[in-house]
Amino acid sequence: xxKRVAPYLKxxxxxxxxxxxxxxxxxxxxxDLVVPWDRKPDQVGFLWPRGLSVVTLYLEGLADxxxxxxxxxxxxxxxxxxxxx
Length: 85
Hints:
Layout: H1 2-5, H2 23-29, H3 41-47, H4 62-83
């Protein structure tokens, strides 16, 4: 759905899905922050030691999505103020 709303996303290689992560693709993107689903702690255990900043979210419904977004906003704001000047 996101690719229909924002077609430019088609140009960005996919690092996987919420269930299967393609670590090689993810590492090639050199992300500032990775936000995986919290149901895969082994992925976090793999990503963090490789120098990636990781914040996990556990989403079961819209209420979790709202609270997760509220948790991410201050992190994104901090990063934009301190790293992208």
